[in-house]
Amino acid sequence: MNRIMSGTPPSTRPTPRPGVLDIAAYVPGKNTAPGVAKVFKLSSNETPLGPSPRAIAAYQGWADHLEEYPDGSASDLREAIGRAFGLDPNRIVCGAGSDDLLHLVAHAYLVDGDEAIHTIHGFLIYPIAALGAGAKPVVVPEKDYTADVDAILTAVTNKTRIVFIANPNNPTGTCLSFDEMKRLHRGLPPNVLLVIDAAYAEYVRHNDYEAGIELVATSENVVMCRTFSKIHGLAALRLGWMFAPAHVVDAINRIRGPFNVTGPAIAAGIAAIEDVEHQQRSREHNTRWLDWLTHEISKLGLKVTPSVANFVLIHFPETKGRTAKNADAFLTARGLILRQTTAYKLPNALRMTVGSEEANRLVVAALEEFLGKS
Ligand SMILES: Cc1ncc(COP(=O)(O)O)c(C=O)c1O
């Protein structure tokens, strides 16, 4: 029986499923500074070193085959990732960025009325993916800008189906230790999927950190998402991967687009993951300038949340003329584009990607001037 026959008044136009119109659409970092000749985009956590030259060559190699569909199972890429991390390629799914995989997980595991937990300053895609699947995002507090395992566990109800956690988190740059992540996992019912989003894992130097591989390998309800957009510098190609239990891989493979990863992305991804020296150079650059920025910006009297990723969260006072909004305008006028974090419930902060030496030095000098200290 259709809805007209059953007596439900017909809509005058198609309506999206419940939740969709509650979504505040994701707004990417700015990339323009009107009237400024040279712009430094430090708003999207892109690597200042760019991709591996080998990845660029592999990408260009595809130009002569654009009429061909890619391998829908991305098997060469999954094997390359498997070799790099010692993983079974059958337990890997690739996606058009890790965003694609986060949405796929939400659509595979959430139905109307389910709950998906994320932390208050967690990555913005989590509530978007949950609402898009008809579920309710449940927001929990953090402690010192860090995910709070007890708060997450307290929020679990019999409607909870997913816990999304970015480790390290964007935009705070903080992370949970492996022990804390294990404690979180131990406290979750077995039917709740723990989604560890480790987009910035390659940058972390803490020896008590584990990206998620071990937990995925030893349980049935944990997945780990990774991306080629950050340390590998392939954000434009949209490429991510997920390591998951076999039953989750099976579910995701049933609903993903059959060619959700492009041929050029597969080719570039293989070259990128195999170019270990390039990754090492990127990590070394990041380590050096992350420490320098944290030190120099703190010296100016601004609070910087200690970060393990490739960006820093800078906190500004609420004093008129010295706010995050004022600083953003001041920096943008000089071609230095940082990320506003109001949508992350951090209206008094800006997030800055670790940039080139030139960009980093310019931001510190500009902040000094902004604060009247130069
Ligand atoms: C925590 C986190 N997860 C996922 C992503 C998405 O990455 P991708 O480009 O692979 O979709 C980002 C990008 O900013 C991120 O910060």
Please outline the helices and strands.
Layout (H helix, E strand, L loop, with lengths): L39 E2 L11 H9 L13 H11 L6 E4 L1 H13 L5 E5 L5 H8 L3 E5 L1 E2 L2 E2 L1 H7 L4 E7 L11 H10 L5 E5 L15 H5 L4 E6 L12 E4 L2 H10 L7 H12 L1 H24 L3 E3 L5 E5 L8 H9 L3 E2 L1 E2 L8 E5 L3 H14 L4
Parallel strand pairs: 1-13, 3-4, 3-7, 7-8, 8-9
Antiparallel strand pairs: 2-10, 5-6, 9-10, 11-12, 12-15, 14-15
The protein binds pyridoxal-5'-phosphate.
The site of pyridoxal-5'-phosphate has 13 residues, from helix 3.
Index terms:
374 residues, 35% helix, 7-stranded mixed sheet, alpha/beta, binds pyridoxal-5'-phosphate, 12 helices
3D structure, described in words:
The protein is of the alpha/beta class and 374 residues long. Helices cover 35% and strands 16% of the residues. It is built from twelve helices and 15 strands. The chain has a seven-stranded mixed sheet with strand order 2-10-9-8-7-3-4, sandwiched between helices. Helix 4 (125-132) links the parallel strand 3 and strand 4 (136-140). Helix 3 (97-109) packs parallel to helix 4. The model has no long low-confidence stretch (mean pLDDT 95). Bound molecules: pyridoxal-5'-phosphate. Pyridoxal-5'-phosphate is lined by residues 45, 97-99, 123, 166, 170, 197, 199, 227, 229, 235, 240.
